Amino acid sequence: MSEFSTPQRVRVLLPISTGASYDYSVPADLHVEAGAFVRVPLGPREVVGVVWMLDPTLTIDASKLRGILEILPVQALPVEARNFVDWVATYTMQSAGKVLRMCMSVPDALYPKARRKGFRLTNALPDRMTPARQRVIDAMEGGLAHTAQQIAEMAGVTTSVVKGLAEKSVLEAVALPSEDPIPVPQHLSGGFELSEDQKQAAASLVEAAQSSKFSVSLLDGVTGSGKTEVYFEAIAATLKANRQALVLLPEIALSSQWLSRFEARFGVKPVEWHSDLGQGERRRNWRGVSEGRAKVVVGARSALFLPYSDLGLIIVDEEHEASFKQDEGVPYNARDMAVVRAQAGSFPVVLASATPALETLVNAKSGKYEHLKLPSRFGGAHLPEVQLIDLKDYRPGAQRWVSEPLIEEITKTLAEGRQAMLFLNRRGYAPLTLCDACGHRLQCPHCSAWLVEHRLSRRLQCHHCGFRTTIPKDCPECEEEDSFKACGPGIERLTEEAGLLFPDANVAMIASDTMTGPKAAADFVENMISGKIDLLVGTQIVAKGYHFPNLTLVGVVDADLGLAGGDLRASERTYQLLSQVAGRAGRAGHAGRVLLQTHMPEHPVMQALASQDVDSFIESETNMRQNAAMPPFGRLASVILSSIDPESLRNCAQTLARKAPHGDNFMIMGPAPAPLSMIRGRHRVRFLIKCTKDQNIQSIIGKWIKGIKIPSNTRLQIDIDPYNFM
Ligand code: ADP
Ligand code: ZN
Q1: Beta carbon of 586 within 6 Å of any ligand 1 atom
Q2: Is 198 near ligand 1, meaning CB less than 6 Å away?
């Protein structure tokens, strides 16, 4: 390399929320490339950032620049990943530093691990054999080297036994590789024999995976149609090309069934990325991704920001899921950003769902996305029959929530030796607790929300901020003793009722606060498959992904629950959630049935579910959005102001309202108190910005808030494409 190609100055992006990048000089003995992770001085501190630009045009005198301290011994962040960071920052109107911070979530991983000392067996035998020594020798058979600690654990001895054997030359010291190895998935072993429909879809995905071109495919198949098996073929093709693949799953930590299927197909476990990983695993996986040793990553939305060395495919499973949208920090939708990432890296992305988002369907209809359909369940299993129960006709008894027809159907199902599930998307015992004497309701002191009774943990809980307290003995309002009464059903109360109705059945309750990790999830799956559970009572956590062959009946206790509140996607989401739940029934040879308890049997969502006529439901939803110029036919953003001080909040909101620009192609609505007008002690108001598709909503907002001074006790949050309107 010639002298002239070595940059003398670089601009370094720092992972800090102000997001500034600073210029540094490069000491003569360092060779730095774009994307390199470097340690630099910042005021009195030292921080690690990424070289964003070589030889920038300086705004200050070159002699004033401070020098780079060190280039870290780790792969540079590839140009696609850097472009992605810039794109996400611009789109979400957040600083690039804040986005970069998501790529640098494991500071440990920036340095290689120190080499470790290991031991392996020699041919020598100890002069004196003890049972402990024998166990070590047995455990070490096979010749692999391990650390003293690992050997001690394997053999159930102390490390001093290991060291003793090393002194006697029965074990010899060797250097272990510094990084823990990551097993490589095998693409050669074929999967299942695919059906005709599956073959066609798979062929199209494989072709896309081989082409190294950007494309988006919607894999649109009813629940149980074998979407996973089909996209496994695309992963196999990507592995064959020796590139990396990423699978985004909602609720990844709980997808033990998915992981087992992957292992059955590819011989090893994939690399996982989610909040339940331990520090050591995070480090290993981050580094493995960066060095290209991690071939398949399955993860939550944050896995998008890992430093892939050669990413060649992204699958977004259950692409319609609202949990792909992050509301805090950098608000982004991982489904949409996956498409952007694929474009930045010129590779295909696959969006899979049984109930695709309206946005995605519109793109598929217009031809922007390839539309692959799997219209029937695999192996001849039929979609379950869906029936509505009008709660006006079949009113459950007082303080009861399960109607007579549903009770009958469950009784029949259990008598046939099959499993049933009651679905209610509400955690806790009761959504509302009030005083029987004066009607006083228990409210969270920090939020404008009612407290929810959790009887198992004997607590009242706020579902917005996590506040917990005990149920007061006397009403704080009227001082009546023992007067608090639960109103309405939560899943705990429903479980109680199920126990009374079906005393001989094994009833199990599953909610996100009771199924707390991968182990609990695996136990749950095991108990369902083995038939230990007869009647499952669950929230949305059991609605997705699971495959329980003997589950034939699903009863939805309150099908109307998601329709209240009337946000933009309320109908769409209720439809998606309920068809996912319904999709758990009858997935194997036995016919499934679904009963929906509703007060609104004539509602389009209920009609669509009962008639299984998705198309006309989607069409009418599409028309409604189009007429209202709502997404995906228009753009939407929200600006939320929040403060602990209501006075400065009001002032700031008024200033913003006064300065709001007007135009033909856009509209700024508000300020309105947010539906949750207080969260965690902060008062909130919101503005909604709506514009036509051809407008740049970011620049409208940018021009509007530019120059408006936001007091330091007030926070302004911008959310482009909001999903949450609370
Ligand atoms: P989806 O993700 O579309 O709901 P899955 O991929 O979970 O469907 O498939 C449903 C069930 O059918 C799974 O148990 C899967 O292993 C099985 N299956 C799907 N396709 C095949 C196939 N071609 N051969 C054998 N089993 C299959
Ligand atoms: Zn609260």
Answers
A1: no
A2: yes
Question: pLDDT at position 589, please?
Answer: 75
Whether 191 lines ligand 1, by a CB cut-off of 6 Å, is: no
CATH of domain 9-84: 3.40.1440.60
One of 3.50.50.60, 3.30.70.600, 3.40.50.300, 3.10.310.10 is the CATH number of 634-720, namely: 3.30.70.600
CA of 678 to the centre of ligand 2 (A): 8
Q: By the 8 A CB rule, do 120 and 172 touch?
A: yes
What value does the CA radius of gyration of the chain take, rounded to a whole number of Å? Answer: 29
Question: Which one of 200, 229, 373, 376 would you pick to mutate in the ligand 1 pocket, going by the greatest count of ligand atoms within 8 A of its CB?
Answer: 229
Centre of ligand 1 from the C-alpha of residue 131, in Å: 49
* Residues, CB within 5 angstroms of ligand 2 (ion): 444, 446-447, 462, 464-465, 467
Residue 228 Cβ < 6 Å to ligand 1? yes
Indicate whether this model's pTM tops 0.70: yes
Rounded alpha-carbon distances, angstroms, from residue 431 to 425, 464, 578, 596? 11, 13, 20, 20
418's tokens: 């099959």
For residue 223, report the distance from its CA to the centre of ligand 1, in Å: 9
Q: Would you say the CB of residue 221 lies under 6 angstroms from ligand 1? A: yes
The 8-class DSSP code of residue 254 comes to G
Q: What is the DSSP letter of 441?
A: B
Contact between 100 and 115 (Cβ < 8 Å)? no
The full set of domain ranges for the chain reads 9-84, 116-176, 196-378, 381-426+489-616, 634-720
What is the CA(550)–ligand 1 centre distance, in A?
15
**Cβ count within 10 A of residue 718:** 20
- pLDDT tens per residue across span 50-61: 999 998 887 778
Residue that the structure tokens 């509301």 belong to:
327
Per-residue HEC secondary structure of 342-397 comes to HHHHCCEEEEEECCCCHHHHHHHHCCCCEEEEECCCHHHCCCCEEEEEECCCCCCC
Reported CATH class of domain 196-378: alpha beta
Residue nearest to atom 10 of ligand 1 (CA): 224
Protein residue with its CA nearest to atom 15 in ligand 1: 226
CB 235 within 8 A of CB 360: no
Centre of ligand 1 to C-alpha 185, Å, is 20
Does the C-beta of 495 come closer than 6 Å to ligand 1?
no
Q: How far is the CA of 447 from the centre of ligand 2 (A)?
A: 4
Common-topology check for domains 196-378 and 381-426+489-616: yes
- 116-176 CATH fold: Arc Repressor Mutant, subunit A (1.10.10)
pLDDT at 2: 41
Contact 541, 323 (CB under 8 A): no
| Mutate which of 228, 263, 581 for ligand 1 pocket (most atoms within 8 A of beta carbon) | 228
CB distance 226 to ligand 1 below 6 Å: yes
| Ligand that lies nearest to the alpha carbon of residue 463, given by its number in the listed order | 2
pLDDT in tens, 251-304: 765 578 899 999 999 999 999 999 888 888 999 999 999 999 999 999 999 999
Shortest-distance Cα residue to atom 20 of ligand 1: 226
Q: b vs e for 467-482, b when ≥16 Cβ sit within 10 Å of the residue's Cβ?
A: beeebeeebeeeeeee
Tell me: the pLDDT tens digits for 104-145? 999 889 888 777 788 988 888 888 889 999 999 888 887 788
Q: Average pLDDT of 498-510?
A: 95
In this predicted structure, what is the pLDDT of residue 1? 39
What is the rounded distance in angstroms from the CA atom of residue 409 to the CA atom of residue 169?
Answer: 71
Contact of 325 with 333, CB cutoff 8 Å: yes
The answer to whether 7 and 65 are in contact (CB under 8 A) is: no
- Ligand 2 centroid–CA 531 distance in Å is 39
Q: Report the CATH number of the 381-426+489-616 domain.
A: 3.40.50.300
